[in-house]
Records
---
Amino acid sequence: MTIAAPPVPHYVPAPRASEELEYADLAVIDLAKFGTPEGKAKLAAEVRAAMKDKGFFYVINHGLTQEQTDRVFDIANIPLAQVSDEEKMKYDGKMQQTGSYQGYKPRQYWQIDNGVRDQIEHYNMNKNLQRKDHPEALRPYLGQLHEFIKHNHFNILHPLLKLLALGMGIQEDIFIPFHNFDARGETFLRFMKYYPRTEDDEQKTKNVWLKGHTDFGSVSILWSQPVAALQLICPDGKWRYVSHIPNALVINAGDALEFLTAGFYRATIHRVVQPPPSQCGHERLGVFYFAMPDDDLALRPLPIAGKWPVDQRRFADEDAPTMEEYRKGRIVAYGNSETKKDGEGKVEVQMIGKVLVRHYN
Ligand SMILES: O=C(O)CCC(=O)C(=O)O
Ligand SMILES: [Fe+2]
């Protein structure tokens, strides 16, 4: 990936948190080992173990240098910091009408809790950058973003999908045909910023910035950044933080992978909370590649499902939604007030077709 012209203002993230936080102990997958058969086999076993244990892991040696990654964060800040409110409105993605993440999600679009709305803004781009126009300030960088998207797709996502398949003891290419770069699908790049909130909002939401959820796609690739706020539910039921490893990726599976593998790989619940005092008042800029199967794929267990020992399907095969139906349902439903609290009020449930979806606080 080129990191040359045009120049872009450097984004300076917050310093690392100085507190001793309770961090989840996550495996580190060294993608440099993918190139040899022995290395690949070893990584497949590590990925499988990591997915079975916490459902989250890090990836290092993904092919971009720290300098290149810094450049991506610099570009990521452009649509959030350099575009006027007026122009942002023009590129509003209107997610709850379209069921698609393309364009801006404005702040305060979602309900969090007790009448408080979110302070998160994002700009989302389909893997095919030509599906939509982009704000003017971003246009000089589209060539580099195209390269970055392809890097995520072919050099990170595809190897990970192969490791996940090998980890199940099945042929490595099984997930590849329906993660087709050129097919109609919603795999997208997101630049996301969390803005500090008022004390009143913090209290009313018990410091939750983004409610507990599972991602709805297959594999989520999060480019590690220093503001400590992402937490996952560990096997002992406790929320723990994801620590920052410079120039690493944080990987987790989403619902689509869980459905396709009949629960062999589970989608892990995670959330975002207020950062610790040493990072209080700082913005939090994130870069993500959210991958999902092509729109037309029905999310039922792969035909080979009978061959592996886990079967935790959550709905009958004939009730399986397509990826398009499921992502539309999830995007439209997220953060609006129509979720119902369960008996204890901790979990909110929603039906997307025949699929029961939970949100956690
Ligand atoms: O901001 C983060 O670290 C996680 C965001 C997230 O979970 C999501 O957008 O689905
Ligand atoms: Fe998520």
---
Amino acid sequence: MALLEIEDLTVEFYTEEGVVTAVEDLSYRIERGEKFGVVGESGAGKSVTALSVMRLIESPGRIASGEIRFKGEDVLGMSEREVRDLRGQEIAMVFQDAQTALNPVYTVGEQIAEAIRHHLDYDDREARERTIQLLDEVGIPEAETRYSDYPHEFSGGMQQRAIIAMALSCEPDLLICDEPTTALDVTIEAQILDLIEELADEFDVAVQLITHDLGVIAKVCDRVMVMYAGKPVEKAPVEELYYDPKHPYTVGLMSSIPRVGDRRERLQTIPGTMPDLVGLPPGCSFHPRCPYAEEVCTLEEPPLLDPETGAEASGLGEASEHTAACLEYAGALEDGLDYEVEIRNSESEPRAPQGGQR
Ligand SMILES: Nc1ncnc2c1ncn2[C@@H]1O[C@H](COP(=O)(O)OP(=O)(O)OP(=O)(O)O)[C@@H](O)[C@H]1O
């Protein structure tokens, strides 16, 4: 049994424009201690997926169908009280904006200590000691003194460290990080990613890392799911995704991995934008932006397939599996996919493939 199992999850929002299917038939699993990345452009459904796991989807949204199991327990069937315990003690979440997660009127230390007192049976002194220890572990210098600082006295990076300390304070088994470094500059981003990686190993906590940046996933994760318009389009162990991407959308994302110091607009190499989720294009949702699309792509919607055998992926899939939702692997494209992956071994990080031209 995996730590987290999501099966055929569909989440809808009832808006004035119509029903928005933000997530559709999504399945994935996260093993204990695994670092799992979810990547895709804005609006792909990454945050909605994470909020569903925490049962935090609010009106006008609802989980229309599917199953969510955490340690085998049916999350959607839990009482409110059970869900609160799940959020406090088993799954913690770190958001992009540390400022909104910290209350400006309490000191940083008090806020973390309060979370510890609330979730674990610690008295005031123990909670304070544990907080100082945690602040130290997340790399806040002079943790004892900084305990009494207010959030505004912390830099953005320090605030995010404090939030991570708070998230870890109740010893969760899963830490969901939703764009944890988007608001930070590149150097601080790298430090926070290192921290998340170190702490995941030290605290033996699984991580679901959500980002629009494949470079971030490469640094931290073991396995990755690429999402497009509410659906998974590719799932693979991270190295395989980098060296042998199978979906044209993934190739486009990789071509736009920014290099250090490069703040250009990301994803500029994939022309077009995510489709309107109220009226998704027929067939493959990516076909209007895909350089390899053929007529069949406007007619048929590809499921996740094994690129080698063309077999349809079953439900949650195996952790080692590499699958992609492209009709090429059903043998349906006449001209095939025509891109090459360029690997430069002189670089320490895997490099982007070069998208091919027709
Ligand atoms: N409260 C809401 N009301 C209506 N639609 C919503 C709401 N929240 C999300 N959606 C819909 O769900 C889609 C997916 O949103 P989601 O926040 O999961 O995307 P994302 O991949 O996390 O993007 P980002 O990187 O911008 O956070 C949105 O484009 C929007 O259409």
---
Amino acid sequence: MRVFDVFIQEQKVVSCIDIFARVGANRPLVISDLKTFVDGDEGLSIRVEGVVGSPIVCGISIRKDSPSNSGEVELPELMGVPQMQECGIKESDDCEVARELQKLQRDYEFQKKELAETKRVLEVLKRDNQLKSRECKEAWKSLQDLQNELMRKSMHVGSLAFAIEGQVKEKSRWFSSLRDLTRKLKIMKMEHIKLSEDALAYKKCLVDINEMGSTIQSTISHQVNLHEDLKIKFTEGAKERKELYNKVLELKGNIRVFCRCRPLNTEEIASGASMTIDFESARDGELTVKSNGAPRKTFRFDAVFGPQADQVDVFQDTAPFATSVLDGYNVCIFAYGQTGTGKTFTMEGTEEARGVNFRTLEELFRIIKERQKLFRYDISVSVLEVYNEHLRDLLVSGTQPGAAAKRLEIRQVGEGVHHVPGLVEAHVNNMSEVWEVLQTGSNARAVGSTNANEHSSRSHCIHCVMVKGENLLNGECTRSKLWLVDLAGSERVAKTEVQGERLKETQNINRSLSALGDVISALATKSPHIPFRNSKLTHLLQDSLGGDSKTLMFIQISPNESDLSETLCSLNFASRVRGIELGPAKKQLDTTELLKYKQTVEKTKQDIKSKDCAN
Ligand SMILES: Nc1ncnc2c1ncn2[C@@H]1O[C@H](COP(=O)(O)OP(=O)(O)OP(=O)(O)O)[C@@H](O)[C@H]1O
């Protein structure tokens, strides 16, 4: 774009000149002193080749080539005319020659004069020439000045042209943006019209929406009132259900006694042991003990579970107590019986056949999940044992059974409120956390003793589940406790014939079991005095025994005839515990009352369900 050739008279006089390299941007380049020959009226042609775009030729100055000399002509020096003698001409010859010579002399004189004249003219001309030369030089100088001026002007014109060109471009850009803007304005105007139409439509819509809003508002307030009504009705219904459910349990008995008889074990079968229990008659809760094949005594229970009954069967009758705990009632579940009759099997069970402890907690969490929209529950668990009338916290690691452990005391902190300061209460949210706590307790019990089985038979193992409930509808709060107690073995002193430390242990066990029997019996007979303070165990459970509280006792027995006296002891204990509450006279009343309440409960359940749906 910036490199080009110049041709004059079709002859390249400038080759590949780089204008930018020479003068830079926007500045004119002067190419001078190019020579050519113009013949006659042939004309002068100047051509630039290789340019791109529209460069400007600011001007062309043409001048005639000046001659190298000033025009003075050098003439040869004139020589003098030769004499006749010198020419070898003889006198004799020649007046002719003399005349010729004279003529030549005259010519010579004449030419000499002419020459002098010419010289003079030449001198004049020379002076004229010098004058003209000077004038010419001055003219040349002013011409050069003019040329420079012209060049400057041209440059100025060039830069002006360049600026104008820029302005023209700018202007065309402006025009095109103006065109764009006009087009956009047109579109915007159209959009504005459309938006105005839309706005109008929306305005109309808004009126409709406002109307709809007020309708919805009134519907909502109506629904809220309805909801509030339903909430009240639901709360009342739930309360009614709770009361009815409790009534049903009360009618069944706040103190209930189940009997569970373990199967004969392999050694007993191998030794051909005979059975002392007649399970045929046990179906209605009556249990007949035979001796040497003949019926000896009959006992009555709320339920009897024979050797065939599995953990699921047993738990079916225990599950309602879980509901009671979440309804805010205290519940105590005990397993009583001599060593090896299955107390731990009933309460703890095995990994394949979980016992009451695990299943009750599982049921608690199931109901909590079921009720989660209406109630919030907070569950914590403590595990402790009573050994030789001392309390030991099994969730505190490193404690030894008995005296070596940190002494725990039972303190009364309010009317009918007892508390064990310092007892660990592990907060649990689900079954896996519960299981971890139960395992920790079991391990601590095993680790703390020299002979785990011996020790576990001689201490009461207690799990306490503390439940804090909050009704999300009316903010009502409940606090209740579920005690799960695997009692120490109920061997008689006479049978074991023990002495020393073991005798003390046995006496302590018997004293506390007897105190428990006394308390439950006093509660069952509604005695004015309940001897809670006679043992650590009853003192500890004081708040959860009697009143609205529910008590369930599993009497564990062995079917082996050789254990007959121990079995009878346990069954007598059961009779004492059952008291008169579920005597034969009451049973008649129970059936009709129960039926009536069962119907009411069913109806209430359906009411609650339909209210739930409505909500
Ligand atoms: N209903 C049952 N079905 C099957 N096995 C049982 C049953 N009850 C007890 N057993 C078995 O009998 C044995 C003794 O049971 P368990 O240890 O529960 O008795 P215990 O009364 O707790 O004894 P201890 O007082 O020594 O703790 C265990 O091996 C247990 O698995």
---
Amino acid sequence: MPTPAIPTVDLSPFFTAGDDSGRKKAKDIIAEACTDYGFFQIVNHGVPLEVMNQAMELSKTFFSYSDEVKRESSSGPDAPLPAGYNKQPDHSPDKNEYLLMFPPESPFNILPDNPPEFRKTLEEMFKYFVKTGQILEDIISECLDLPPNFLKEYNNDRSWDFMVTMRYKPATETENNGITEHEDGNLITMVLQEDIGGLEVSKNGEWIPVIPSKGTLVVNISDVIQVLSNKKFKSATHRVVRPKERSRHSYVFFYSLQGDKWVEPLPQFTQEIGAKPKYKGFYYKDYQALRMRNKTHPPSKPEDIARLTMYEI
Ligand SMILES: O=C(O)CCC(=O)C(=O)O
Ligand SMILES: [Fe+2]
């Protein structure tokens, strides 16, 4: 049987007025992918190709520096938020290092001075990702038949968004885990992966490699959308398998929610249709704190990793 592909959606109709049939086509594909497994790719998404290429090259240069130089951009092991450069500790099954940033104006950011232009490009990437995230959020709100602007008004504070650029060292003969299978804890995640691949999504119980394609971004639906929609839309289960040939680089943007927001299944997906809520409500900051701890203090045992199942009813 041929490997089922991940659908690719052209977002250009959302950048021009009047293309209603183009918008409908895109929404139909997205709604289907979100209902089944929460994963799709986008093209003509608004992030310019030259900015993506430059960001990838600069990230490769940064990660090629010595640990000592990279650690100049670290916040230290006891920092409340893992801004700046970090490497997964040896006991973690996840083998990667990363540079994490909050919105460009955030006082938490620790951005490297070198390579020159890196900081400016990171900030530029961040702003483009926010714009694309807002378009995706509108589309998802419509696909869920929520009142116009519902998600936009609920999620009206962008200060908790964050972006990570990552490097995974090549797989060894015995071990190739980059990131263990997981779902993301935010609303919507966008990934720019290098042409070497490595990202895989679980679809109908099978791991499907997401084949990289120039200019394409990968999108996955994350836990908050799954909770709000009472599991109508799925938070994608995904993982990174390290390729053997060389290091792999990526950019991952976590379009998030302000911490004081209450997250629970919406009435449209529960009492209004006579369905029981599948999750208890929670403050986003409480869940986010546990998720950040997964990153900064990764548990050795998979069962100790904080995930959405803790709120399941
Ligand atoms: O590096 C990637 O392609 C994806 C990383 C990822 O899934 C994550 O950081 O949550
Ligand atoms: Fe992820």
